[in-house]
Amino acid sequence: MRHFYEELKDETKSQTKFRDYISRDQWQVQNFEAWMKEAVQDKLPQEFQDLVVAFGRKLGFNVSFGSYGAHGTGYDGIWSDDQGLQIIVESKSATWPISDWIGQLGTYLEDSMRKSSGRVFGLFVLGDESKIQLLADQIRGNREFSNKVRLISYKDLLRLGRIRSDANLNLSQVSSLLVPVDAVNVGEFVRLVDTIILETKIAEETPKPPPTVLRASDTAIETVKRSQLKQDDGEVIICPSKPDGVKFLLAYQSWGFIRIKRSPKYLALYVSRPYSEVQYLGEIDRIIDPKDASSPVPNPAQFEEYEEGKKLVVLKTGTLRKLLDPVKLREAFPPVGRRYTTLQRLLQAKDLDEVLESHGLGEEKSE
Questions:
Q1: Could you list the residue range(s) of the whole structural domain that residue 120 is in?
Q2: 206 occurs within a structural domain
Q3: Pairing mode of beta strands 321-328, 222-224
Q4: Residue 196, domain member (yes or no)
Q5: What confidence score (pLDDT) does residue 358 get?
Q6: Within the chain, where are the H helices?
Q7: Could you tell me if residue 69 is inside a domain?
Q8: Confidence grade of residue 19 (pLDDT, cut at 50, 70, 90)
Q9: Is the entire prediction scored with pTM above 0.70?
């Protein structure tokens, strides 16, 4: 890792160069994973510190770097949001006595709480997982800071980064996982975990077309308001998708690969976070085996989601529309699997919650 910079010291060009480099938007979770692992293995505490702090940007935080020594800020860095939350980050890459760690972080917390009217917490990020239980026990036993300090291994921090990306968690939800939550009302935490699970299931159901499958002409579809749609009423199948799945819909004017027993008249596509809304609607022409000679999808077996018995829903040419006023999810859990409603109920609903929670055609059970 040190092939392009010199030893890291406070207020040096090497420090600036390294921090600017790891703060670039192009880096993904897997880049930080490789770098942090190397920093821990090669005993590079300054590099590990800056990598941990910089990773806060991948979680959605504003990031401020600290100092390596006691002559600067003292702390390693701060993650913050626009609502007044501050998380003072302390990284520990190696094994050494931890008797003064909580007191040291507590000093930073007290100083920040005096200067800030917002919420202030502390977070230890450990490179050596063997210290986690010992430090956790000390935090629990500290009456002054037990509700203000949390800890996490760098590997679990990376996992959180992947979860945020896969489930499109917002910053408030990430913060709820990192810092102390309301110990009385645990419902919010339960809902967050459930959202993560459901969004992951949606990702598993979304077909992922090859990068070259989408042509510019494939995106030329009409956009309309729901009030402009005058189709006859009929059954609608609502299929969930990650944002990338829209490419499949646009490219093939079809949706797959799903198990389906009914014969609905329309298909609506729910696009998950960060949109969380029904964005597309089209009239169904036929439901076929993806390997049928009339299938618009070449070589369906190339898709991970394809399985024998799953079907391809092909839309009538020219009927696919993008909704200018999509049916948004407000508070209900996102739909997973196939959900059914009627066209008029979908078009007239004030939000998707009204559709999902109403008594009606409901959900099709998996075979």
A1: 13-180
A2: no
A3: parallel
A4: no
A5: 62
A6: 13-22, 29-41, 45-55, 101-115, 132-140, 154-167, 171-178, 187-205, 246-252, 343-348, 352-357
A7: yes
A8: very high
A9: no
Q: Are residues 48 and 124 in the same domain?
A: yes
CA dihedral 53, 128, 190, 204 (to 10 degrees): 80
Q: Are residues 172 and 284 in the same domain?
A: no
Strands 222-224 and 120-126: unpaired
| Range list of H helices, 206-296 | 246-252
The maximal CA–CA distance of the chain, rounded, in angstroms, is 73
Quick check: 59 and 164 in contact, CB under 8 A?
Answer: yes
Alpha carbon 93 to its chain's center:
27
Token pair for 108: 């930073």
Q: Are 131 and 257 in the same domain? A: no
Residue 146: phi and psi, rounded to 5, are -60, -30
Task: Tell me: do 173 and 294 sit in the same domain.
Answer: no
What's the domain count of the chain? 2
Residues 146 and 229 in one domain: no
Residue 343 DSSP class = H
Contacts of 87 (CB under 8 A, 6+ apart): 56, 61, 78, 79, 80, 121, 122, 123, 175, 178, 179
Question: What's the confidence (pLDDT) of residue 100?
Answer: 63
DSSP designation for 24: -
Place of tokens 């810092």: 179
Higher pLDDT pick, 365 / 106: 106
**pLDDT value at residue 332:** 73
- Residue 37 sits in the same domain as residue 169: yes
Q: Within this chain, do residues 176 and 50 fall inside the same structural domain, yes or no? A: yes
